């Protein structure tokens, strides 16, 4: 993988993906989006990765939005191509078979907030600031914000944030359910690792199916979503994981899912 704008490393089965344009507050340009695509394709195919932490380089920003300098002179058709490419990447993160945690280490604005929302879980540094300031620029959110934000915080709060272009701090993001935890800046990555470690102790197939059931369900009407849950739930009974998890409970011992893989 040739990467310039994104850093990638794997340690202890965790992939660390870091957007690396600190001079532009890690703004998303076409190259970053292309590199994220490559990285997430790689993660999906790599059995040596069981979880992902996505963050921004430096102490100031997760991602301060799409790159305004690059967008300024785009034609409508160019902006459409960019949106299509970015949506594919956001979807591949949302649908990744491994849990993805956004470590929000500073500004997460516009496309940055949208990138964080495509992740499964968001953990913010106390210094994080989040928002969808697009209407300040005469545009609307274009990387999924009009759809993922109301699904996370409700229609009223999403309209409030998008229409006012307001920026909120980590405490407020936590209060409205936009982030699931807040950590001291120095503890941010460790906190994400702790959450991934907790998930990794569970049955990996069950974790994957639970994520799928939630994602599928939110795209469907309730009846179809519940039917989908029945199918995925019953599938877990075809696995060694279910046998091991239930046997371990009844034998009053910790489940050992790893040896059942
Ligand atoms: N794009 C490009 N450069 C950026 C940037 C951005 N989004 N944000 C910051 N920078 C650059 C600044 O220009 C500055 O560069 P130099 O002047 O040093 O060369 C450097 O990063 C440091 O920024 P500041 O000097 O402004 O730092 P401050 O601490 O004073 O302020 C700030 C931090 C985050 C409050 C401020 O930088 C800021 O307001 N940034 C812009 C936030 C923003 O509006 N983001 C864009 C939201 S709109 C699309 C789909 C989706 C989108 C667009 C198109 N299509 C399908 C085409 C999404 C759009 C958005 O994300």
Distance between the termini: 28 Å
Query: In what range is the share of β-strand residues?
Result: 15-25%
**CATH C-level of the largest domain:** Alpha Beta
Multimeric status of the protein: single chain
Instruction: Note the main sheet.
Output: 6 strands, mixed
The CATH architecture category of the largest domain equals Alpha-Beta Complex
Structural class: alpha/beta
- Along the chain, the helix and strand elements come as EEHEEHHEEHEEHHEHEHHHH
Task: Return the domain count.
Answer: 2
Bound molecules: 4-(N,N-dimethylamino)cinnamoyl-COA
CATH topology of the largest domain: 2-enoyl-CoA Hydratase, Chain A, domain 1
Q: How are the strands of the largest sheet arranged? A: 1-2-3-5-7-10
CATH superfamily of the largest domain: 2-enoyl-CoA Hydratase, Chain A, domain 1
- The total count of strands amounts to 10
Topology:
Layout: E1 6-11, E2 14-19, H1 30-45, E3 51-56, E4 61-63, H2 68-71, H3 76-94, E5 100-104, E6 107-109, H4 111-118, E7 121-125, E8 129-131, H5 145-153, H6 155-164, E9 167-169, H7 170-175, E10 181-183, H8 188-200, H9 204-218, H10 222-236, H11 240-250
Parallel strand pairs: 2-3, 3-5, 4-6, 5-7, 6-8, 7-10
Antiparallel strand pairs: 1-2, 8-9
Helix pairs in contact: 1-3, 4-5, 5-6, 9-10
Bound molecules: 4-(N,N-dimethylamino)cinnamoyl-COA.
Overview of the molecule:
Strand 1 and strand 2 form a beta hairpin. Helix 9 runs antiparallel to helix 10. The chain is 48% helix and 16% strand. The strands form 2 sheets. It has a 6-stranded mixed sheet with strand order 1-2-3-5-7-10, with helices on both faces. A 4-stranded mixed sheet has the order 4-6-8-9. The chain has helices at 30-45, 68-71, 76-94, 111-118, 145-153, 155-164, 170-175, 188-200, 204-218, 222-236, 240-250, and strands at 6-11, 14-19, 51-56, 61-63, 100-104, 107-109, 121-125, 129-131, 167-169, 181-183. The two termini are 28 Å apart. The chain is built from 11 helices and 10 strands. With 261 residues, it is of the alpha/beta class. It has 2 domains: 6-200, 2-enoyl-CoA Hydratase, Chain A, domain 1, CATH 3.90.226.10; 204-260, Lyase 2-enoyl-coa Hydratase, Chain  A, domain 2, CATH 1.10.12. It is globular. 38% of the residues are buried. The structure holds 4-(N,N-dimethylamino)cinnamoyl-COA.
């Amino acid at each position: 993988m040739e990467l310039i704008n994104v850093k990638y490393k794997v340690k202890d089965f965790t992939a660390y993906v870091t957007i690396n344009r600190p001079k532009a507050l890690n703004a998303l340009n076409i190259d970053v989006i292309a590199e994220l695509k490559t990285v997430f394709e790689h993660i999906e195919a790599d059995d040596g990765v069981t979880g992902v932490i996505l963050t921004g380089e430096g102490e100031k920003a997760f991602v301060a939005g799409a790159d305004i300098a690059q967008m300024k002179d785009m034609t409508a058709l160019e902006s459409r191509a960019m949106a299509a490419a970015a949506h594919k990447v956001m979807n591949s993160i949302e649908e990744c078979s491994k849990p993805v945690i956004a470590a929000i280490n500073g500004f997460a604005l516009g496309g940055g907030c949208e990138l964080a929302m495509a992740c499964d879980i968001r953990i913010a540094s106390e210094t994080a600031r989040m928002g969808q300031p697009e209407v300040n620029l005469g545009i609307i959110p274009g990387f999924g914000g009009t759809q993922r934000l109301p699904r996370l915080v409700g229609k009223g709060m999403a309209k409030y944030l998008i229409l006012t272009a307001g920026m909120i701090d980590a405490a407020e993001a936590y209060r409205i359910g936009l982030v699931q935890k807040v950590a001291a800046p120095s503890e941010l990555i460790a906190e994400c690792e702790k959450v991934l470690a907790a998930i990794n102790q569970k049955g990996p197939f069950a974790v994957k199916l639970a994520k799928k059931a939630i994602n599928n369900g939110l795209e469907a009407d309730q009846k179809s979503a519940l039917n989908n849950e029945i199918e995925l739930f019953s599938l877990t009974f075809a696995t060694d994981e279910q046998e091991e998890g239930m046997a371990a409970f009844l034998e009053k011992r910790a489940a050992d899912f790893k040896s059942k893989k």
